[in-house]
Amino acid sequence: MVLCLSSVPACQGPRKWLMLAVLAGWSLSLAGCATTDRSQAPSGTLYGNYLAARYATSQHQTERAASYYHDALAIDPSSDVLLERAFLMSVAAGDIDRALAISEPLLKVDPSDRLARLVLALHDVKDESYDTAKEELKAAAPGPFAELIGTLTRAWASAGQGKKDEAIKALDTFKGRDAFDLFRVYHQALILDMLGDAKGAEAAYLDAMGQTGSTSIRIVLAYASFLDRGGHAGRARTVIQQYQALAPDNPLTEQALKSLDDKEMLPPLVASPAEGVAEALYGLSSALVRDQGVDLAELYVNLALYLRPDFDLAQILLAEVYEQDKRFDMAAKLYRSINPASPLYPDAQIQAALALDQQGKDSEALALLRDIEAKNPRLTDAVIAQADILRGNQKFAEATPLYARAIAMTGGKQDPRFWTLYYARGICYERTGQWPLAEKDLKLALELSDDNPMVLNYLGYSWIEQRKNLGQALDMLKKAVEAKPDDGFVIDSLGWAYFKLGHYDQAVEYLVRSVELEPNDATINEHLGDALWMAGDKINARFQWAHALEMKPDADKVKPLQQKLVFGLDFSTTSADSGARQAMPGS
């Protein structure tokens, strides 16, 4: 069985609150196909810069890609391909000013280029040049992008001119189109709110609230603000509290309720056309992230930040995109740049610490978390994040009291919401040789989580290792596999359990499947080798052990594998992984 300690989830990690939105149909590939790094091409040459840009693009390193394309463009300014890609990568990297600088020559090549026209229109909206913005949008080639963001931008430009009927007419083009209707009613509400049409705004807000089931934090806060500014603070409080019942401990709703308690007016979410378009871009970006369209999400959210640089939710969304692309250095930097006055600041710093830990900077991460905890002593997530980082670095004894403190901070009421705390503490107890305490926590986690497959996996395997409750343990592992049939680590657990019980043919069956799902895991390959040897297939057993060695396993596993290659299992340890088990993948 395999233990991926760093992948055990944050037990109640930092929260994300993204506006409910729908996915637009525009697709654009940002991935390059080159496989050669800049270091393999002549430095400073057209060819070298181009290859470096293509490689950086394939690695989702948009800032580097943009820089290399601009270097190449400086050498060959006549290249239409370089011009287009330099523009695209600049926008994706958030360097909008640099993109604007080459928009004119790009439009000479293609006067209807949709992205170039959009960027120019956004620049005009930001500059309050609304007529010019609408002309730019009119000149853009048709397409889904132009229909969604283009139409919303045109509506906000008309609103900026005080032309309410023209703005609503633009939005009405979405009527009858389910994919865009939430954008229509939400932005109609925001526009009418900004223009002072209280009756129309309330009807549109109620429509938007109904479409989302009142589960969109952006719509809830926008409507609550509208109610409060209209003299209905009580109704505003009710709307927020109804959302809180679905998502407790949200810092945005907590701040809004505190403002109501202090008789402070809730500010409008959108106070200008530029902020309105930024809201539209953010909404689309959040939908794209949910649907794994991170390349497009990065582009759109950077455009939102161009219009509204202090948009904290958009900053957090962009940092999340960086995390999905494993650009943890950029994610940490962006999280740490959140305004300390933002209610999202403490959670952003926790996310920054987790991103630092992903870079191997666990000491820096822990120092940041201790600082956050000192400033926010009631912030349970800061304590949990410290425990998770310590556990991920196999410092189980240090993590255990932190989990205990986090459990105490939740009131110790054994709430199902906090089952992962007991699960994680149970892992720490087991790893420090305190099995009775571990078993108690794991059983409680199993009960609170309603038989979560990862808890079934851990507890069941632990019993198999100790040759306790064997029938129940095997049933638990089978149930875990049924719940996660495509999880190679969980399947490895069942296969390794069969091995430990001496059922070698069944062990081989499951371990072959596990290797198919996780071909690059050294321990799973070692397990398959062990099972093959005991099933009598010694040639393939040695092949699997050799393969496991090629994967550069942990140092303490190298010698046992080498011994197996020479002696088989006749004189070696049964396994280099005795007692290990798979923990829950990261959320």
Layout of helices and strands, plus pairs?
Layout: H1 46-58, H2 62-75, H3 80-92, H4 96-101, H5 103-109, H6 114-126, H7 130-138, H8 144-160, H9 164-171, H10 178-194, H11 198-212, H12 217-229, H13 233-246, H14 251-261, H15 273-290, H16 294-307, H17 312-324, H18 328-336, H19 345-358, H20 362-375, H21 380-392, H22 396-409, H23 419-431, H24 435-448, H25 453-466, H26 470-483, H27 488-500, H28 504-517, H29 522-534, H30 538-550, H31 555-567
Helix pairs in contact: 1-2, 2-3, 3-5, 6-7, 6-8, 7-8, 8-9, 8-10, 8-15, 9-10, 10-11, 10-15, 11-12, 12-13, 13-14, 15-16, 15-17, 16-17, 17-18, 18-19, 19-20, 19-21, 20-21, 21-22, 22-23, 23-24, 24-25, 25-26, 25-27, 26-27, 27-28, 27-29, 28-29, 29-30, 30-31
What does this 3D model show about the protein?
The chain is mainly alpha-helical and 587 residues long. Among the domains are: 224 residues, Alpha Horseshoe (Serine Threonine Protein Phosphatase 5, Tetratricopeptide repeat), CATH 1.25.40.10; 101 residues, Serine Threonine Protein Phosphatase 5, Tetratricopeptide repeat, CATH 1.25.40. It has 31 helices and no strands. α23 runs antiparallel to α24 and α27 packs antiparallel against α28.
Number of helices: 31
Q: Considering the protein shown, what is the CATH homologous superfamily of one domain? A: Tetratricopeptide repeat domain
- The chain-level mean pLDDT equals 88
> What is the number of E strands?
0
Beta strand %: under 5%
CATH structural fold name of one domain: Serine Threonine Protein Phosphatase 5, Tetratricopeptide repeat
Proportion in helices: 55-70%
Radius of gyration: 28 Å
In the predicted model, the low-confidence regions spanning at least 5 consecutive residues are 1-10, 12-43, 573-587
CATH architecture of one domain: Alpha Horseshoe
**Major sheet, described briefly?**
none
Q: What is the SS-derived class?
A: mainly alpha
Q: Mind telling me the CATH class of one domain?
A: Mainly Alpha
Distance between the termini: 21 Å
Outline type:
globular
